[in-house]
Amino acid sequence: MAQAPESRRPLAVALPLHLAEPEAGDVRPTAALGHCLVTGAAGFLGRHLVRELLRRGARVRGLDVVPLELHHPHFEFVAGDVRCFEDVRKACEGIDTVFHTAAVLDFARFPTRAQRERSTAVNVHGVEHVVRAAREAGAARLVHTSSNNVTLDGPVIGGDETRPRAARTRDLYTETKILGEEIALAANGHGGLLTCAVRPGGIYGPGETLVFPRLVEQLASGRYVARLGDGSALTDNVFVENLVDAQVEAARHLLPGSPLCGEAYFVTDGAPQNQFEFFRPVVEALGFRHPTRSVPAGPVRWGLALWEALHRALAPLGVPRPPLLAHEVAKISVPHWNRIEKAERDFGWRPRVPPEQAIARMIEPCRRLLAEREAVERPHWSQWLAILGGLGALGVLALSPAAHRTFEAWVGPWAPRPLLAGVLAWALGLHVWKALRAVQLAERLGLRRTALAWGWQTFALGFASLRLLERRAAAPGAAGFRLPNVRWLLALITTLHRGLYRATGGRLGERALGFRFLLLGCTGRRSGREYVVPLLTVEDGGRFVVVGSNAGDPRDPAWWQNLRARPEAWVQLGRRRLAVRAREASPGEAERLWPRVLETYRAYEAYRARAGRPIPLVLLEPSR
Asked: Which helix (H) or strand (E) is 407 found in, with range?
Protein backbone atom coordinates (compact mmCIF):
# COMPACT_ATOMS: atom_id res chain seq x y z
CA MET A 1 0.00 0.00 0.00
CA ALA A 2 1.33 3.44 -0.85
CA GLN A 3 2.69 5.37 2.11
CA ALA A 4 1.21 8.73 3.06
CA PRO A 5 3.41 11.74 2.22
CA GLU A 6 5.18 13.35 5.16
CA SER A 7 2.99 16.46 4.92
CA ARG A 8 -0.13 14.40 5.62
CA ARG A 9 -1.91 14.77 8.94
CA PRO A 10 -1.39 11.62 11.05
CA LEU A 11 -4.38 9.38 11.67
CA ALA A 12 -5.75 9.71 15.19
CA VAL A 13 -6.66 6.31 16.60
CA ALA A 14 -9.13 5.78 19.42
CA LEU A 15 -11.24 3.00 20.86
CA PRO A 16 -14.71 2.43 19.36
CA LEU A 17 -17.51 4.56 20.71
CA HIS A 18 -19.59 1.47 21.40
CA LEU A 19 -19.11 -2.25 21.02
CA ALA A 20 -21.82 -4.72 21.97
CA GLU A 21 -20.17 -7.20 24.30
CA PRO A 22 -17.00 -7.71 22.23
CA GLU A 23 -15.23 -11.02 22.60
CA ALA A 24 -11.72 -11.05 23.94
CA GLY A 25 -9.31 -9.79 21.32
CA ASP A 26 -12.14 -8.60 19.10
CA VAL A 27 -11.78 -4.89 19.85
CA ARG A 28 -10.98 -3.17 16.56
CA PRO A 29 -9.00 0.05 16.36
CA THR A 30 -10.97 3.01 15.01
CA ALA A 31 -10.04 6.45 13.74
CA ALA A 32 -11.27 9.82 14.94
CA LEU A 33 -13.14 11.26 11.98
CA GLY A 34 -11.80 14.77 12.44
CA HIS A 35 -13.22 17.41 10.10
CA CYS A 36 -15.85 15.79 7.83
CA LEU A 37 -17.17 16.77 4.41
CA VAL A 38 -20.60 15.55 3.26
CA THR A 39 -21.37 16.04 -0.43
CA GLY A 40 -25.05 16.22 -1.32
CA ALA A 41 -25.61 17.56 2.20
CA ALA A 42 -29.07 18.94 1.42
CA GLY A 43 -30.32 15.60 0.13
CA PHE A 44 -32.31 13.09 2.17
CA LEU A 45 -29.33 10.93 3.11
CA GLY A 46 -26.95 13.88 3.34
CA ARG A 47 -29.12 15.75 5.86
CA HIS A 48 -29.35 12.74 8.17
CA LEU A 49 -25.63 12.07 7.87
CA VAL A 50 -24.75 15.67 8.73
CA ARG A 51 -26.97 15.62 11.82
CA GLU A 52 -25.58 12.29 13.05
CA LEU A 53 -21.99 13.48 12.66
CA LEU A 54 -22.80 16.65 14.59
CA ARG A 55 -24.51 14.58 17.28
CA ARG A 56 -21.29 12.58 17.64
CA GLY A 57 -19.30 15.77 18.10
CA ALA A 58 -17.62 16.02 14.69
CA ARG A 59 -16.97 19.23 12.78
CA VAL A 60 -18.93 19.04 9.51
CA ARG A 61 -18.86 20.89 6.22
CA GLY A 62 -21.72 20.38 3.75
CA LEU A 63 -21.44 20.76 -0.02
CA ASP A 64 -24.50 21.01 -2.27
CA VAL A 65 -26.08 23.12 -4.97
CA VAL A 66 -29.18 23.45 -2.77
CA PRO A 67 -28.79 25.35 0.53
CA LEU A 68 -29.10 23.40 3.77
CA GLU A 69 -30.72 25.52 6.47
CA LEU A 70 -28.97 24.17 9.53
CA HIS A 71 -27.57 26.31 12.34
CA HIS A 72 -24.93 24.62 14.47
CA PRO A 73 -21.61 25.95 15.79
CA HIS A 74 -19.73 23.00 14.24
CA PHE A 75 -21.46 23.08 10.86
CA GLU A 76 -20.41 25.03 7.77
CA PHE A 77 -22.29 25.00 4.47
CA VAL A 78 -20.49 25.57 1.17
CA ALA A 79 -22.52 26.13 -1.99
CA GLY A 80 -21.00 24.17 -4.84
CA ASP A 81 -21.44 21.51 -7.49
CA VAL A 82 -19.54 18.22 -7.70
CA ARG A 83 -19.49 18.74 -11.47
CA CYS A 84 -17.11 21.65 -10.90
CA PHE A 85 -13.68 20.51 -9.67
CA GLU A 86 -12.83 23.93 -8.27
CA ASP A 87 -15.94 23.84 -6.05
CA VAL A 88 -14.98 20.40 -4.75
CA ARG A 89 -11.34 21.40 -4.25
CA LYS A 90 -12.32 24.35 -2.04
CA ALA A 91 -14.77 22.21 -0.07
CA CYS A 92 -12.06 19.59 0.64
CA GLU A 93 -9.55 22.03 2.13
CA GLY A 94 -8.68 20.99 5.67
CA ILE A 95 -10.92 17.89 5.52
CA ASP A 96 -10.03 14.54 7.15
CA THR A 97 -13.02 12.38 6.16
CA VAL A 98 -15.20 12.63 3.06
CA PHE A 99 -18.69 11.13 2.78
CA HIS A 100 -19.75 11.27 -0.86
CA THR A 101 -23.56 11.02 -1.16
CA ALA A 102 -24.30 13.40 -4.05
CA ALA A 103 -25.95 11.62 -6.99
CA VAL A 104 -28.57 11.96 -9.70
CA LEU A 105 -31.35 9.35 -9.53
CA ASP A 106 -32.45 8.96 -13.14
CA PHE A 107 -33.73 5.48 -13.96
CA ALA A 108 -34.45 6.21 -17.64
CA ARG A 109 -34.13 3.22 -19.92
CA PHE A 110 -33.92 5.43 -23.00
CA PRO A 111 -32.22 8.60 -21.75
CA THR A 112 -31.95 11.74 -23.80
CA ARG A 113 -28.55 13.21 -24.48
CA ALA A 114 -29.13 15.81 -21.79
CA GLN A 115 -30.11 13.16 -19.23
CA ARG A 116 -27.02 11.09 -20.02
CA GLU A 117 -24.72 14.08 -19.81
CA ARG A 118 -26.17 15.16 -16.45
CA SER A 119 -26.02 11.71 -14.84
CA THR A 120 -22.52 11.08 -16.13
CA ALA A 121 -21.32 14.49 -14.97
CA VAL A 122 -22.57 13.90 -11.41
CA ASN A 123 -22.39 10.13 -10.87
CA VAL A 124 -19.11 9.53 -12.71
CA HIS A 125 -17.10 12.72 -13.16
CA GLY A 126 -18.34 13.97 -9.80
CA VAL A 127 -16.70 10.95 -8.14
CA GLU A 128 -13.48 11.66 -10.04
CA HIS A 129 -13.53 15.24 -8.77
CA VAL A 130 -14.15 14.17 -5.16
CA VAL A 131 -11.36 11.57 -5.26
CA ARG A 132 -8.87 13.98 -6.80
CA ALA A 133 -9.75 16.87 -4.49
CA ALA A 134 -9.66 14.66 -1.36
CA ARG A 135 -6.26 13.31 -2.34
CA GLU A 136 -4.83 16.76 -3.06
CA ALA A 137 -6.22 18.10 0.23
CA GLY A 138 -4.60 15.29 2.22
CA ALA A 139 -7.86 13.74 3.39
CA ALA A 140 -7.42 10.40 5.14
CA ARG A 141 -10.50 8.50 4.02
CA LEU A 142 -13.47 8.52 1.64
CA VAL A 143 -16.73 6.61 2.08
CA HIS A 144 -18.56 6.47 -1.23
CA THR A 145 -22.33 5.90 -1.38
CA SER A 146 -23.02 3.38 -4.13
CA SER A 147 -26.18 1.28 -4.62
CA ASN A 148 -27.29 -2.33 -4.50
CA ASN A 149 -28.30 -1.79 -8.13
CA VAL A 150 -24.70 -2.26 -9.23
CA THR A 151 -25.09 -6.06 -9.17
CA LEU A 152 -28.66 -6.18 -10.47
CA ASP A 153 -28.85 -7.66 -13.96
CA GLY A 154 -31.09 -10.57 -13.03
CA PRO A 155 -32.51 -12.27 -9.93
CA VAL A 156 -30.29 -11.94 -6.86
CA ILE A 157 -31.16 -14.30 -3.98
CA GLY A 158 -28.94 -14.08 -0.93
CA GLY A 159 -26.19 -12.35 -2.86
CA ASP A 160 -22.97 -11.06 -1.38
CA GLU A 161 -20.04 -8.85 -2.34
CA THR A 162 -18.38 -11.64 -4.37
CA ARG A 163 -21.10 -11.24 -7.02
CA PRO A 164 -19.67 -9.28 -9.99
CA ARG A 165 -21.10 -5.97 -11.03
CA ALA A 166 -23.92 -6.09 -13.58
CA ALA A 167 -22.72 -6.79 -17.10
CA ARG A 168 -26.00 -5.63 -18.65
CA THR A 169 -27.55 -2.41 -17.43
CA ARG A 170 -31.03 -1.31 -18.43
CA ASP A 171 -31.17 2.10 -16.81
CA LEU A 172 -28.99 5.16 -16.62
CA TYR A 173 -28.68 5.21 -12.83
CA THR A 174 -27.24 1.69 -12.58
CA GLU A 175 -24.86 2.30 -15.46
CA THR A 176 -23.38 5.46 -13.97
CA LYS A 177 -23.32 4.18 -10.37
CA ILE A 178 -21.24 1.19 -11.47
CA LEU A 179 -18.68 3.49 -13.07
CA GLY A 180 -18.67 5.77 -10.02
CA GLU A 181 -18.09 2.88 -7.61
CA GLU A 182 -15.23 1.55 -9.74
CA ILE A 183 -13.54 4.96 -9.66
CA ALA A 184 -13.93 5.32 -5.89
CA LEU A 185 -12.59 1.86 -5.05
CA ALA A 186 -9.74 2.05 -7.57
CA ALA A 187 -8.52 5.19 -5.78
CA ASN A 188 -7.83 3.31 -2.55
CA GLY A 189 -4.24 3.64 -1.40
CA HIS A 190 -3.22 6.17 -4.03
CA GLY A 191 -1.73 9.29 -2.51
CA GLY A 192 -2.52 7.97 0.98
CA LEU A 193 -6.31 8.14 0.50
CA LEU A 194 -8.27 5.15 1.82
CA THR A 195 -11.64 4.40 0.24
CA CYS A 196 -14.56 2.04 0.62
CA ALA A 197 -18.11 1.95 -0.75
CA VAL A 198 -21.49 1.33 0.85
CA ARG A 199 -24.24 -0.28 -1.25
CA PRO A 200 -27.59 0.53 0.37
CA GLY A 201 -30.90 -1.04 -0.50
CA GLY A 202 -33.94 1.15 -1.02
CA ILE A 203 -33.50 4.03 1.42
CA TYR A 204 -36.55 5.10 3.42
CA GLY A 205 -37.35 7.16 6.47
CA PRO A 206 -39.36 10.22 7.53
CA GLY A 207 -38.87 12.98 4.99
CA GLU A 208 -37.96 10.88 1.96
CA THR A 209 -39.65 12.04 -1.25
CA LEU A 210 -39.52 9.09 -3.66
CA VAL A 211 -41.31 6.00 -2.36
CA PHE A 212 -43.80 6.68 0.40
CA PRO A 213 -45.23 9.92 -1.05
CA ARG A 214 -46.02 7.96 -4.21
CA LEU A 215 -47.63 5.22 -2.14
CA VAL A 216 -49.83 7.79 -0.38
CA GLU A 217 -50.82 9.32 -3.71
CA GLN A 218 -51.81 5.91 -5.10
CA LEU A 219 -53.81 5.11 -1.99
CA ALA A 220 -55.61 8.44 -2.02
CA SER A 221 -56.42 8.28 -5.73
CA GLY A 222 -57.70 4.68 -5.55
CA ARG A 223 -54.97 3.27 -7.79
CA TYR A 224 -53.36 0.96 -5.21
CA VAL A 225 -55.57 -1.98 -6.13
CA ALA A 226 -53.28 -4.79 -7.27
CA ARG A 227 -49.81 -6.23 -6.72
CA LEU A 228 -47.23 -6.57 -9.44
CA GLY A 229 -46.07 -10.17 -9.69
CA ASP A 230 -47.00 -13.14 -7.54
CA GLY A 231 -45.60 -11.70 -4.31
CA SER A 232 -42.62 -14.04 -4.10
CA ALA A 233 -39.94 -11.51 -5.10
CA LEU A 234 -37.97 -10.33 -2.05
CA THR A 235 -36.14 -7.01 -2.06
CA ASP A 236 -33.86 -5.05 0.27
CA ASN A 237 -34.60 -1.78 2.05
CA VAL A 238 -32.65 0.18 4.61
CA PHE A 239 -33.90 2.66 7.19
CA VAL A 240 -31.98 5.90 6.85
CA GLU A 241 -30.72 5.81 10.45
CA ASN A 242 -29.28 2.34 9.91
CA LEU A 243 -27.57 3.50 6.74
CA VAL A 244 -26.09 6.58 8.39
CA ASP A 245 -24.80 4.45 11.24
CA ALA A 246 -23.14 2.09 8.72
CA GLN A 247 -21.52 5.01 6.89
CA VAL A 248 -20.07 6.47 10.07
CA GLU A 249 -18.85 3.12 11.37
CA ALA A 250 -17.25 2.30 8.02
CA ALA A 251 -15.36 5.60 8.12
CA ARG A 252 -14.22 5.04 11.71
CA HIS A 253 -12.83 1.59 10.84
CA LEU A 254 -11.21 2.69 7.57
CA LEU A 255 -7.54 2.54 8.66
CA PRO A 256 -4.36 1.47 6.90
CA GLY A 257 -4.32 -2.31 6.70
CA SER A 258 -7.99 -2.69 7.64
CA PRO A 259 -10.15 -5.10 5.60
CA LEU A 260 -12.35 -2.19 4.46
CA CYS A 261 -9.72 -0.66 2.18
CA GLY A 262 -10.92 -0.74 -1.41
CA GLU A 263 -13.98 -2.86 -0.54
CA ALA A 264 -17.74 -2.51 -1.07
CA TYR A 265 -20.43 -3.45 1.47
CA PHE A 266 -24.13 -4.17 1.18
CA VAL A 267 -26.07 -2.28 3.85
CA THR A 268 -29.73 -3.15 4.45
CA ASP A 269 -32.15 -3.74 7.29
CA GLY A 270 -31.26 -7.43 7.03
CA ALA A 271 -34.90 -8.42 6.50
CA PRO A 272 -35.74 -8.87 2.79
CA GLN A 273 -39.44 -8.59 2.02
CA ASN A 274 -41.76 -8.41 -0.92
CA GLN A 275 -42.29 -4.71 -1.55
CA PHE A 276 -46.06 -4.91 -1.14
CA GLU A 277 -45.69 -6.71 2.20
CA PHE A 278 -43.19 -4.05 3.18
CA PHE A 279 -45.88 -1.41 2.57
CA ARG A 280 -48.69 -3.38 4.28
CA PRO A 281 -48.35 -1.92 7.83
CA VAL A 282 -48.54 1.63 6.49
CA VAL A 283 -51.40 0.84 4.10
CA GLU A 284 -53.52 -0.74 6.81
CA ALA A 285 -52.64 1.92 9.41
CA LEU A 286 -53.94 4.59 7.02
CA GLY A 287 -57.26 2.73 6.76
CA PHE A 288 -56.83 1.20 3.30
CA ARG A 289 -57.08 -2.41 2.20
CA HIS A 290 -53.98 -4.31 1.23
CA PRO A 291 -54.36 -5.45 -2.40
CA THR A 292 -55.08 -9.13 -2.89
CA ARG A 293 -55.23 -9.23 -6.69
CA SER A 294 -52.05 -9.72 -8.70
CA VAL A 295 -51.09 -8.43 -12.13
CA PRO A 296 -48.41 -10.23 -14.18
CA ALA A 297 -45.31 -8.05 -13.99
CA GLY A 298 -43.87 -9.03 -17.37
CA PRO A 299 -46.50 -7.41 -19.63
CA VAL A 300 -46.60 -4.32 -17.41
CA ARG A 301 -42.83 -4.02 -17.56
CA TRP A 302 -42.64 -4.29 -21.34
CA GLY A 303 -45.62 -2.00 -21.80
CA LEU A 304 -43.95 0.66 -19.68
CA ALA A 305 -40.69 0.17 -21.59
CA LEU A 306 -42.60 0.82 -24.83
CA TRP A 307 -44.27 3.89 -23.30
CA GLU A 308 -40.89 5.16 -22.16
CA ALA A 309 -39.50 4.68 -25.67
CA LEU A 310 -42.44 6.61 -27.15
CA HIS A 311 -41.90 9.38 -24.61
CA ARG A 312 -38.22 9.49 -25.56
CA ALA A 313 -39.08 9.83 -29.27
CA LEU A 314 -42.23 11.95 -29.08
CA ALA A 315 -41.78 14.10 -25.96
CA PRO A 316 -41.65 17.28 -28.12
CA LEU A 317 -45.16 16.39 -29.29
CA GLY A 318 -46.46 16.19 -25.74
CA VAL A 319 -46.29 12.42 -25.03
CA PRO A 320 -45.97 12.34 -21.21
CA ARG A 321 -43.49 10.38 -19.13
CA PRO A 322 -44.91 7.04 -17.90
CA PRO A 323 -46.09 7.10 -14.28
CA LEU A 324 -43.80 4.17 -13.48
CA LEU A 325 -40.57 3.19 -15.22
CA ALA A 326 -39.75 -0.33 -16.38
CA HIS A 327 -36.75 -0.38 -14.04
CA GLU A 328 -39.00 0.41 -11.08
CA VAL A 329 -41.26 -2.52 -11.98
CA ALA A 330 -38.20 -4.76 -12.16
CA LYS A 331 -37.11 -3.63 -8.70
CA ILE A 332 -40.54 -4.66 -7.37
CA SER A 333 -41.03 -7.93 -9.24
CA VAL A 334 -37.52 -9.39 -9.62
CA PRO A 335 -35.97 -10.85 -6.44
CA HIS A 336 -32.82 -9.01 -5.42
CA TRP A 337 -31.61 -9.21 -1.86
CA ASN A 338 -28.14 -9.44 -0.42
CA ARG A 339 -26.52 -10.57 2.81
CA ILE A 340 -24.86 -8.11 5.16
CA GLU A 341 -22.49 -10.45 7.04
CA LYS A 342 -19.41 -8.85 5.48
CA ALA A 343 -20.19 -5.47 7.10
CA GLU A 344 -20.63 -7.12 10.50
CA ARG A 345 -17.41 -9.12 10.08
CA ASP A 346 -15.21 -6.25 8.87
CA PHE A 347 -16.41 -3.32 10.97
CA GLY A 348 -18.89 -4.72 13.44
CA TRP A 349 -21.99 -3.08 12.00
CA ARG A 350 -25.48 -4.44 12.27
CA PRO A 351 -28.83 -2.57 11.95
CA ARG A 352 -29.68 -0.76 15.18
CA VAL A 353 -33.32 0.01 14.31
CA PRO A 354 -35.36 -3.20 13.78
CA PRO A 355 -37.41 -3.23 10.55
CA GLU A 356 -40.71 -3.47 12.43
CA GLN A 357 -39.87 -0.34 14.40
CA ALA A 358 -38.56 1.45 11.32
CA ILE A 359 -41.71 0.89 9.25
CA ALA A 360 -43.87 1.86 12.25
CA ARG A 361 -42.07 5.22 12.28
CA MET A 362 -43.30 5.82 8.70
CA ILE A 363 -46.98 5.72 9.63
CA GLU A 364 -47.29 9.20 11.11
CA PRO A 365 -45.39 10.97 8.26
CA CYS A 366 -47.60 9.16 5.74
CA ARG A 367 -50.69 10.13 7.69
CA ARG A 368 -49.61 13.76 7.46
CA LEU A 369 -48.95 13.39 3.73
CA LEU A 370 -52.44 12.00 3.27
CA ALA A 371 -53.96 14.90 5.17
CA GLU A 372 -51.93 17.47 3.23
CA ARG A 373 -52.50 15.87 -0.17
CA GLU A 374 -53.84 18.33 -2.74
CA ALA A 375 -57.15 16.91 -3.89
CA VAL A 376 -58.25 17.28 -7.50
CA GLU A 377 -61.06 19.82 -7.64
CA ARG A 378 -64.18 18.46 -9.28
CA PRO A 379 -66.48 20.49 -11.53
CA HIS A 380 -70.21 20.44 -10.79
CA TRP A 381 -71.96 17.16 -11.57
CA SER A 382 -74.07 18.91 -14.22
CA GLN A 383 -70.93 19.65 -16.23
CA TRP A 384 -69.90 16.00 -16.10
CA LEU A 385 -73.36 15.03 -17.34
CA ALA A 386 -73.54 17.66 -20.07
CA ILE A 387 -70.01 17.24 -21.47
CA LEU A 388 -69.72 13.47 -21.32
CA GLY A 389 -73.32 13.10 -22.49
CA GLY A 390 -72.71 15.49 -25.36
CA LEU A 391 -69.52 13.73 -26.46
CA GLY A 392 -71.24 10.36 -26.18
CA ALA A 393 -74.21 11.52 -28.28
CA LEU A 394 -71.89 13.05 -30.86
CA GLY A 395 -69.94 9.81 -31.06
CA VAL A 396 -73.10 7.76 -31.59
CA LEU A 397 -74.35 10.08 -34.36
CA ALA A 398 -70.95 10.19 -36.06
CA LEU A 399 -70.29 6.44 -35.94
CA SER A 400 -73.74 4.83 -36.16
CA PRO A 401 -75.57 5.13 -39.53
CA ALA A 402 -78.87 4.01 -37.95
CA ALA A 403 -78.71 6.61 -35.20
CA HIS A 404 -77.82 9.29 -37.74
CA ARG A 405 -80.80 8.42 -39.95
CA THR A 406 -83.10 8.79 -36.94
CA PHE A 407 -81.44 12.13 -36.12
CA GLU A 408 -81.93 13.39 -39.69
CA ALA A 409 -85.59 12.40 -39.59
CA TRP A 410 -86.04 14.62 -36.52
CA VAL A 411 -83.94 17.70 -37.29
CA GLY A 412 -83.27 17.60 -41.03
CA PRO A 413 -80.20 16.92 -43.20
CA TRP A 414 -78.10 19.95 -42.20
CA ALA A 415 -75.52 17.83 -40.25
CA PRO A 416 -74.18 14.98 -42.45
CA ARG A 417 -72.21 12.21 -40.82
CA PRO A 418 -68.80 13.29 -42.23
CA LEU A 419 -69.34 16.71 -40.69
CA LEU A 420 -70.23 15.19 -37.31
CA ALA A 421 -67.18 12.93 -37.54
CA GLY A 422 -65.06 16.03 -38.11
CA VAL A 423 -66.64 17.72 -35.11
CA LEU A 424 -65.95 14.61 -32.99
CA ALA A 425 -62.30 14.52 -34.12
CA TRP A 426 -61.97 18.22 -33.35
CA ALA A 427 -63.50 17.80 -29.88
CA LEU A 428 -61.33 14.80 -29.01
CA GLY A 429 -58.22 16.57 -30.28
CA LEU A 430 -59.07 19.61 -28.20
CA HIS A 431 -59.57 17.45 -25.11
CA VAL A 432 -56.24 15.68 -25.65
CA TRP A 433 -54.46 19.01 -25.97
CA LYS A 434 -56.15 20.37 -22.86
CA ALA A 435 -55.24 17.20 -20.92
CA LEU A 436 -51.56 17.55 -21.82
CA ARG A 437 -51.71 21.19 -20.86
CA ALA A 438 -53.35 20.33 -17.54
CA VAL A 439 -50.59 17.85 -16.63
CA GLN A 440 -47.89 20.40 -17.39
CA LEU A 441 -49.69 23.17 -15.54
CA ALA A 442 -50.36 21.00 -12.49
CA GLU A 443 -46.68 20.09 -12.27
CA ARG A 444 -45.75 23.76 -12.61
CA LEU A 445 -48.10 24.60 -9.73
CA GLY A 446 -46.41 21.99 -7.52
CA LEU A 447 -49.27 19.45 -7.81
CA ARG A 448 -46.92 16.71 -9.02
CA ARG A 449 -48.68 13.96 -7.08
CA THR A 450 -52.02 14.77 -8.74
CA ALA A 451 -50.83 15.94 -12.16
CA LEU A 452 -51.96 12.77 -13.94
CA ALA A 453 -55.33 12.86 -12.20
CA TRP A 454 -55.79 16.43 -13.42
CA GLY A 455 -54.84 15.25 -16.90
CA TRP A 456 -57.39 12.43 -17.01
CA GLN A 457 -60.14 14.65 -15.63
CA THR A 458 -59.34 17.34 -18.20
CA PHE A 459 -59.31 14.75 -20.97
CA ALA A 460 -62.89 13.90 -19.98
CA LEU A 461 -64.17 17.43 -19.35
CA GLY A 462 -61.90 19.79 -21.29
CA PHE A 463 -62.30 23.46 -20.33
CA ALA A 464 -64.56 22.70 -17.36
CA SER A 465 -61.64 21.00 -15.58
CA LEU A 466 -58.83 23.13 -16.97
CA ARG A 467 -60.50 26.36 -15.81
CA LEU A 468 -60.00 25.28 -12.20
CA LEU A 469 -56.26 24.92 -12.73
CA GLU A 470 -55.98 28.14 -14.73
CA ARG A 471 -57.48 30.09 -11.83
CA ARG A 472 -54.51 28.96 -9.76
CA ALA A 473 -52.10 29.76 -12.57
CA ALA A 474 -53.35 33.33 -12.62
CA ALA A 475 -52.50 33.76 -8.93
CA PRO A 476 -49.30 35.67 -8.04
CA GLY A 477 -46.24 33.47 -8.34
CA ALA A 478 -48.13 30.68 -10.10
CA ALA A 479 -47.81 31.83 -13.70
CA GLY A 480 -44.98 31.01 -16.02
CA PHE A 481 -45.63 27.38 -16.86
CA ARG A 482 -44.58 26.05 -20.24
CA LEU A 483 -47.05 24.29 -22.48
CA PRO A 484 -46.16 21.05 -24.18
CA ASN A 485 -44.92 21.60 -27.70
CA VAL A 486 -48.10 20.61 -29.51
CA ARG A 487 -48.33 23.28 -32.22
CA TRP A 488 -49.20 20.61 -34.77
CA LEU A 489 -52.26 19.73 -32.65
CA LEU A 490 -53.20 23.40 -32.24
CA ALA A 491 -52.98 23.82 -35.99
CA LEU A 492 -55.24 20.78 -36.50
CA ILE A 493 -57.80 22.07 -33.98
CA THR A 494 -57.79 25.52 -35.60
CA THR A 495 -58.27 23.98 -39.04
CA LEU A 496 -61.18 21.81 -37.88
CA HIS A 497 -62.81 24.71 -36.03
CA ARG A 498 -62.50 27.01 -39.02
CA GLY A 499 -63.81 24.32 -41.38
CA LEU A 500 -66.79 23.55 -39.15
CA TYR A 501 -67.61 27.23 -38.75
CA ARG A 502 -67.56 27.91 -42.49
CA ALA A 503 -69.18 24.64 -43.59
CA THR A 504 -72.25 25.25 -41.41
CA GLY A 505 -72.49 28.95 -42.20
CA GLY A 506 -71.86 29.79 -38.54
CA ARG A 507 -74.54 27.46 -37.17
CA LEU A 508 -71.78 25.48 -35.41
CA GLY A 509 -68.53 26.88 -34.10
CA GLU A 510 -69.71 30.24 -32.77
CA ARG A 511 -70.22 28.92 -29.26
CA ALA A 512 -68.13 26.12 -27.83
CA LEU A 513 -67.42 25.05 -24.23
CA GLY A 514 -68.95 28.23 -22.84
CA PHE A 515 -66.96 30.63 -25.04
CA ARG A 516 -67.88 32.73 -28.07
CA PHE A 517 -65.78 32.62 -31.22
CA LEU A 518 -65.67 34.64 -34.42
CA LEU A 519 -63.87 34.10 -37.69
CA LEU A 520 -61.40 36.83 -38.59
CA GLY A 521 -60.39 37.28 -42.21
CA CYS A 522 -57.23 39.33 -42.83
CA THR A 523 -54.74 39.88 -45.65
CA GLY A 524 -51.19 38.57 -45.40
CA ARG A 525 -48.72 41.43 -45.03
CA ARG A 526 -46.25 39.79 -47.42
CA SER A 527 -48.22 37.33 -49.56
CA GLY A 528 -51.39 39.39 -50.05
CA ARG A 529 -53.41 36.19 -49.54
CA GLU A 530 -56.46 35.97 -47.32
CA TYR A 531 -56.07 34.21 -43.98
CA VAL A 532 -58.97 33.14 -41.77
CA VAL A 533 -58.57 32.26 -38.10
CA PRO A 534 -61.11 31.51 -35.33
CA LEU A 535 -60.64 33.68 -32.23
CA LEU A 536 -62.29 33.95 -28.85
CA THR A 537 -64.07 37.28 -28.60
CA VAL A 538 -65.82 39.64 -26.19
CA GLU A 539 -68.32 42.19 -27.54
CA ASP A 540 -68.04 45.81 -26.43
CA GLY A 541 -70.74 48.16 -27.65
CA GLY A 542 -71.00 46.82 -31.19
CA ARG A 543 -67.29 46.16 -31.65
CA PHE A 544 -65.37 42.97 -31.03
CA VAL A 545 -62.42 42.55 -28.66
CA VAL A 546 -59.83 39.85 -29.43
CA VAL A 547 -56.56 39.16 -27.61
CA GLY A 548 -53.15 38.85 -29.27
CA SER A 549 -51.87 36.34 -26.70
CA ASN A 550 -50.55 33.62 -29.02
CA ALA A 551 -50.96 31.30 -25.98
CA GLY A 552 -48.21 33.18 -24.16
CA ASP A 553 -45.62 32.89 -26.92
CA PRO A 554 -42.99 35.70 -26.96
CA ARG A 555 -43.98 36.53 -30.55
CA ASP A 556 -47.12 38.36 -31.63
CA PRO A 557 -49.61 36.15 -33.46
CA ALA A 558 -49.39 36.27 -37.25
CA TRP A 559 -52.93 37.63 -37.62
CA TRP A 560 -52.06 40.69 -35.50
CA GLN A 561 -48.90 41.31 -37.49
CA ASN A 562 -51.04 41.20 -40.64
CA LEU A 563 -53.63 43.60 -39.18
CA ARG A 564 -50.99 46.12 -38.17
CA ALA A 565 -49.85 46.22 -41.78
CA ARG A 566 -53.37 46.12 -43.28
CA PRO A 567 -56.07 46.93 -40.69
CA GLU A 568 -59.03 46.36 -43.06
CA ALA A 569 -60.55 42.94 -42.42
CA TRP A 570 -63.83 41.08 -42.02
CA VAL A 571 -65.39 39.03 -39.24
CA GLN A 572 -68.07 36.38 -39.14
CA LEU A 573 -69.97 35.99 -35.87
CA GLY A 574 -72.42 33.17 -36.15
CA ARG A 575 -74.26 33.78 -39.44
CA ARG A 576 -73.41 37.51 -39.55
CA ARG A 577 -70.52 38.74 -41.64
CA LEU A 578 -69.34 42.34 -41.69
CA ALA A 579 -66.33 44.45 -42.64
CA VAL A 580 -64.20 45.78 -39.79
CA ARG A 581 -61.13 47.88 -39.19
CA ALA A 582 -58.63 46.78 -36.55
CA ARG A 583 -56.72 48.88 -34.05
CA GLU A 584 -55.04 48.33 -30.72
CA ALA A 585 -56.96 49.45 -27.65
CA SER A 586 -55.66 52.62 -26.04
CA PRO A 587 -54.23 52.38 -22.49
CA GLY A 588 -57.48 53.70 -21.05
CA GLU A 589 -59.58 51.24 -23.07
CA ALA A 590 -57.29 48.37 -22.16
CA GLU A 591 -57.54 49.21 -18.46
CA ARG A 592 -61.33 49.08 -18.73
CA LEU A 593 -61.53 45.96 -20.93
CA TRP A 594 -58.93 43.65 -19.36
CA PRO A 595 -61.11 42.74 -16.34
CA ARG A 596 -63.91 41.67 -18.70
CA VAL A 597 -61.51 39.64 -20.83
CA LEU A 598 -60.01 37.91 -17.78
CA GLU A 599 -63.46 37.17 -16.44
CA THR A 600 -64.19 35.38 -19.70
CA TYR A 601 -60.92 33.43 -19.84
CA ARG A 602 -58.60 33.50 -16.80
CA ALA A 603 -55.65 31.88 -18.61
CA TYR A 604 -54.89 35.20 -20.33
CA GLU A 605 -53.35 36.33 -17.03
CA ALA A 606 -50.86 33.45 -17.18
CA TYR A 607 -50.19 34.23 -20.85
CA ARG A 608 -49.40 37.86 -19.96
CA ALA A 609 -46.93 36.78 -17.29
CA ARG A 610 -45.21 34.24 -19.55
CA ALA A 611 -45.05 36.11 -22.85
CA GLY A 612 -42.47 38.70 -21.79
CA ARG A 613 -44.15 41.27 -24.06
CA PRO A 614 -47.21 43.51 -23.82
CA ILE A 615 -50.20 41.46 -24.98
CA PRO A 616 -52.44 43.68 -27.09
CA LEU A 617 -56.20 43.95 -26.89
CA VAL A 618 -57.32 44.37 -30.49
CA LEU A 619 -60.58 46.20 -31.28
CA LEU A 620 -62.40 45.14 -34.45
CA GLU A 621 -64.72 48.04 -35.28
CA PRO A 622 -67.39 47.76 -37.99
CA SER A 623 -66.52 49.88 -41.04
CA ARG A 624 -68.87 52.75 -41.90
From this structure: helix 401-411
